[in-house]
């Protein structure tokens, strides 16, 4: 986690003195879900499952929990060593990817539509979409997805989207990260063969400008106790 903070130049007077910790900010995460964890205790406001349509919060992949820890883990299980970027932020979790980190345009759209209807209810100010479409996405579906993301932006929500793993060539940023609206998170490296329309990014998103990918960082973010009920 310290590597992430160093890469994004996290440390300054305000963060060092605890003045900026994500207070009064709610972040929505569209990913594989979320496992209940002590580092996020009391700050998981809602869960919407667009994959299995289950009621209880869960993460059958682990990627969404990893991303949640980067964003808002308070580090209590590691005595602060693995605290996230905004350790007092609240989270709304929307599961749009399955256990393999795969999903469809329809699942992503369901999640975005749910956010459009509920963002005021939970005070959502930031949406993290750590998925990107493969390059042969149908044009009609691409336009629909981009329009939905732009609508979130038009409602005053900051949207952080994955740049994908298709780079670093020109025009290689994944959908919907290829739009001017939104900040982009990327990881350097190959994409591999992917059958689904969407896949999770191997590691969590990092704030960046398009075309300047960050290396993937496999740090442990949320440290689990030996037993956790």
Properties at a glance:
3-stranded antiparallel sheet; disordered C terminus; 5 helices; 24% helix; 9 strands; 6-stranded parallel sheet; 229 residues; alpha/beta
Order of helices and strands: HHEEHEEHEEHEEE
What about the largest sheet?
A: 6 strands, parallel
Distance between the termini: 25 Å
Alpha-carbon Rg, integer: 16 Å
Helical content stands at: 10-25%
Strand order of the biggest β-sheet: 2-3-1-5-7-8
**Molecular shape:** globular
Proportion of residues in β-strands: 15-25%
Our count of helices gives 5
Q: Determine the mean pLDDT.
A: 76
Task: Extract low-pLDDT stretches.
Answer: 181-229
What's the total count of β strands?
A: 9
The secondary-structure class comes to alpha/beta
Task: Describe the overall structure.
The structure is a single chain. The relative contact order is 0.18. The protein has a six-stranded parallel sheet with strand order 2-3-1-5-7-8, sandwiched between helices. The chain has a three-stranded antiparallel sheet with strand order 4-9-6. It has helices at 2-7, 13-16, 63-72, 105-122, 139-154; strands spanning 26-31, 44-49, 90-95, 102-103, 124-129, 131-133, 158-164, 183-186, 198-200. It contains five helices and nine strands, in the order H-H-E-E-H-E-E-H-E-E-H-E-E-E. Strand 2, helix 3 (63-72) and strand 3 form a beta-alpha-beta unit. The protein starts with a helix and ends in a 29-residue tail after the last strand. Helix content is 24%, strand content 19%. It is an alpha/beta fold. Residues 181-229 have low confidence and may be disordered.
């Amino acid at each position: 986690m310290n590597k992430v903070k160093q890469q994004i130049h996290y440390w300054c007077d305000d963060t060092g003195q605890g003045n900026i910790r994500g207070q009064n900010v709610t972040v929505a995460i569209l990913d594989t879900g979320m496992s209940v964890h002590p580092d996020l205790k009391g700050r998981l406001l809602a869960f919407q499952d667009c994959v299995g349509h289950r009621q209880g919060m869960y993460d059958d992949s682990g990627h969404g929990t990893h991303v949640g820890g980067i964003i808002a883990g308070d580090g209590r299980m590691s005595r602060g060593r693995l605290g996230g970027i905004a350790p007092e932020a609240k989270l709304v979790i929307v599961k749009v990817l399955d256990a393999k980190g795969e999903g469809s345009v329809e699942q992503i759209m369901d999640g975005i539509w749910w956010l459009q209807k509920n963002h005021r209810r939970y005070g959502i100010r930031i949406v993290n979409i750590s998925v990107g479409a493969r390059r042969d996405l149908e044009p009609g579906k691409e336009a629909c997805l981009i329009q939905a993301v732009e609508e979130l932006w038009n409602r005053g929500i900051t949207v952080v989207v994955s740049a994908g793993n298709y780079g670093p060539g020109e025009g290689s940023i994944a959908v919907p990260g290829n739009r001017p609206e939104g900040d982009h998170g990327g990881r350097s490296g190959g994409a591999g063969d992917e059958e689904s329309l969407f896949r999770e990014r191997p590691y969590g998103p990092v704030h960046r400008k398009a075309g300047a990918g960050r290396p993937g960082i496999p740090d442990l973010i949320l440290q689990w106790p030996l037993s956790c009920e």
